[in-house]
Design brief:
Sulfite Oxidase, Chain A, domain 2, Immunoglobulin-like, 3 domains, binds ligand MTE, single chain, alpha+beta, binds molybdenum atom
C-alpha cells in the first residue's frame, strides 16, 4: 500500500507504455480493423461477457458508439498488456547490461503472445515490429541537440523516441487501418437486367421530397455485437444444417450459388432503435430460399424451432415457421454482400425484427427444445414480427406558406395500405400520399407450403398542408393492409421494440 502510494512512473514506464501503443498501432497497420487485430479478441470477449443490462443500455443510448467504446477499452487494455511485456524486456535488458535485449526479447514475446491470441502472423508481426521499433529507437536514438536550455536528459530522449515511434505508426495506422471499402451506391452497370430493373423501379417510384431518403437506402444501418466485423474467406466458409435432422448437411458457396436464386426488396428494422430512429432501411437482395436448404436435411424438431449461428459467435432462436419465404442472401443491391452486412451469406426473415436476420451465418441448428438467443439472454424480446411505424424524417417549408412532412412507413408482412397524418396532435386525420409499392405481391404460386403475405418492404409517404399559423404537432400512423389502424400506445424500445405514433413539433 505504502509502496504503491510512493510509486512514481519512471522514464522506463513511459517508454514501455509507448512501446505498447506502437505494438497496437503496428498490428493495425498490418491487418486493419479486422478480427486479426490484436485488440479484437479482447473486444469480442468483452462483448460476450459484458452484463446484458450494460449492453442493452449501450445499444439504446449509445447506438454503435457503444461498440466503438468497447473497442477503445479493449485497445487500451491491450496497450497496457503489451506495454507490460515491453517493460519486462527492458528490465531483463538492464539486468544483463545489454541494449539489444529489450527490443529482441519483447518483440519475440509480443509476437508469440499475439499469434496465440489472434492466430495471425501478420497481426502479431506488426505488433512485434512496433514494439521492437519503439524500444530500439528509445535505446539507440542519438542524443537530442541542446538548445541552450541545458542538456536534454537521456530519459527524456528515450521517452520522446518511443513516443515518436508510436505516433508515427499511429499515423500510418489511421491511414491504413480504416481500409474497409465503403459499399458502392447506385445501380451497378454490369448487374443482371432483373436487378437493374428493380433498382430503376425503386429510383422511379421514390417520392421527390427534399431531405427524404429514396426507397433503396443510400446508407444502410448496421447493428453488430462486435466493433470489428468478421472477415470471412469464402473458400474457408461453410454452412451446415445440424441438430434434430435426419441427416446433417454442409454446403459451400458454390453449392449455394448453384441453387435457384431470387431477387427481392426487403426492409430491416432494429428492435433497439428509437421510435423515430434511423435503424430501418431497405435494399434489394439476391439469394436462395432457406427452406430449400433446411428441408434437404429433414428437420424433425419437437419445438418447431431453429437456432441460427454465425461466425461472430452470434446466435438467435426462433420458430421454423418464420422461415417461410425467408432468404439466405449473397448479394445486396446487385453487388456482393458487403462485409458489414454479413459477407458471404446472411439471413433475411420476412416481417421480423432485424436481430434474427443473422449475418455471417455458418449454422442452422434445428432444435429439440426452445432456447434463448444472444439478445434474449440480455433481456430483449426481438424474435417476433416488427411493429408498424410511420417515421417523420422530413419537414419542409414550401411556397405560399405551405408545409410538407414526409417519411417512410413500414408494417412488416402486414403491409402498409395507408399512412394517416394529423397536424393537430391526433384529433383529426388526413390521408398521406404514398409511393407505389415496390413489389406488387408476394407470389407463392406453386408453393403451397408458403403463407401468402404482403411484401416485406417499406413505402414512402408525404403530406402537404397550409400552415395553421402557429406551432403544431404533426402525428403519423400506419393503416395496415387488413384495415388495422396502428395503436397509439407508446413503448420504449427495450425490451419489445419501440411502438406508438411518431409525432413532431413543427414551427
Ligand atoms: N452475426 C450477426 N448477425 C446479426 C447481428 C450481429 O451482431 N451478428 N445483429 C443483428 C441485428 S440486432 C440487426 S438489427 C441486424 C442488422 O442488420 P444490418 O447490420 O445489415 O443492418 O442484423 C442482425 N444480425
Ligand atoms: Mo437489432
Amino acid at each position: 500500500m505504502s509502496r504503491l502510494a510512493r510509486y512514481r512512473p519512471s522514464a522506463d514506464d513511459g517508454v514501455a507504455l509507448f512501446a505498447g501503443v506502437a505494438a497496437v498501432a503496428g498490428s493495425l497497420v498490418a491487418v486493419g480493423f479486422s478480427p486479426a487485430f490484436v485488440a479484437s479478441p479482447l473486444e469480442r470477449w468483452l462483448a460476450r461477457e459484458m452484463p446484458g443490462i450494460v449492453v442493452s443500455l449501450a445499444i439504446q443510448y449509445l447506438g454503435s458508439l457503444g461498440q466503438q467504446l468497447n473497442l477503445v477499452m479493449a485497445a487500451l487494455v491491450t496497450v497496457l498488456l503489451l506495454g507490460g511485456v515491453a517493460r519486462v524486456g527492458m528490465a531483463v535488458g538492464d539486468a544483463l547490461y545489454n541494449r539489444a535485449v529489450p527490443p529482441i526479447l519483447s518483440g519475440t514475446a509480443v509476437f508469440t503472445l499475439g499469434t496465440v491470441v489472434t492466430g495471425s502472423f501478420s497481426s502479431s508481426g506488426g505488433a512485434a515490429v512496433g514494439t521492437a521499433l519503439a524500444l530500439g529507437f528509445a535505446t539507440l536514438s542519438p542524443s537530442l541537440p541542446t538548445r541552450g536550455h541545458g542538456e536534454t536528459s537521456d530519459d527524456r530522449r528515450r521517452v520522446l523516441a518511443s513516443l515518436g515511434t508510436a505516433a508515427g505508426l499511429g499515423v500510418v495506422a489511421s491511414v491504413f487501418g480504416s481500409r474497409a471499402p465503403e459499399p458502392d451506391v447506385g445501380i451497378p452497370e454490369n448487374a443482371r437486367p432483373e436487378v437493374q430493373n428493380a433498382l430503376q423501379r425503386a429510383t422511379d417510384s421514390s417520392l421527390d421530397v427534399s431531405g427524404l431518403e429514396g426507397l433503396v437506402s443510400d446508407e444502410f444501418f448496421t447493428v453488430d455485437i462486435n466493433a470489428v466485423d468478421p472477415e470471412v474467406e469464402v473458400t474457408d466458409w461453410e454452412l451446415s444444417v445440424t441438430g434434430a435432422v435426419e441427416e446433417e448437411i454442409t454446403l459451400d458457396m458454390e453449392d449455394i450459388r448453384s441453387m435457384e436464386s431470387r431477387t427481392e426488396f426487403n426492409t430491416l428494422r432494429c428492435v433497439g432503435e428509437s421510435l423515430n430512429g434511423k435503424k430501418m432501411d431497405n435494399a434489394l437482395w439476391t439469394g436462395v430460399d432457406v427452406m430449400d436448404i433446411v428441408e434437404r436435411a429433414g428437420p424433425q424438431s419437437d419445438c418447431e424451432c431453429v437456432m441460427f449461428r454465425a461466425d461472430d459467435d452470434y446466435y438467435e432462436e426462433f420458430p421454423i415457421a418464420a422461415l417461410n419465404g425467408a432468404m439466405l442472401a449473397y448479394e445486396m443491391n446487385g453487388r456482393p454482400l458487403p462485409r458489414g452486412h454479413g459477407y458471404p451469406l446472411r439471413a433475411l426473415v420476412p416481417g421480423h425484427w432485424g436481430e434474427i436476420n443473422v449475418k455471417w451465418i455458418t449454422e442452422i441448428e434445428v432444435l429439440e427444445r426452445e432456447a434463448e438467443g444472444y439478445w434474449e439472454e440480455r433481456g430483449w424480446h426481438g424474435t417476433g414480427p416488427v411493429e408498424s411505424v410511420a417515421k417523420i424524417h422530413a419537414t419542409n417549408t414550401l411556397a405560399e406558406g405551405r408545409k410538407q412532412v414526409a417519411g417512410h412507413a413500414y408494417a412488416g408482412t402486414r403491409g402498409v395500405s395507408t399512412v394517416e397524418v394529423s397536424i393537430d396532435g391526433g384529433d383529426t386525420w388526413n390521408e398521406a400520399r404514398l409511393s407505389e409499392p415496390l413489389t406488387e405481391s408476394v407470389d407463392w404460386e406453386g408453393d403451397p407450403g408458403q403463407t401468402p403475405h404482403a411484401p416485406d418492404v417499406w413505402r414512402q409517404w408525404a403530406y402537404e398542408y397550409d400552415h395553421p399559423g402557429s406551432r403544431h404537432e404533426v402525428v403519423a400512423r400506419v393503416v395496415e393492409d387488413d384495415g388495422t389502424v396502428q395503436s397509439s400506445e407508446r413503448r420504449e424500445s427495450f425490451p419489445n421494440g419501440p411502438a406508438g405514433w411518431v409525432s413532431r413539433t413543427v414551427q
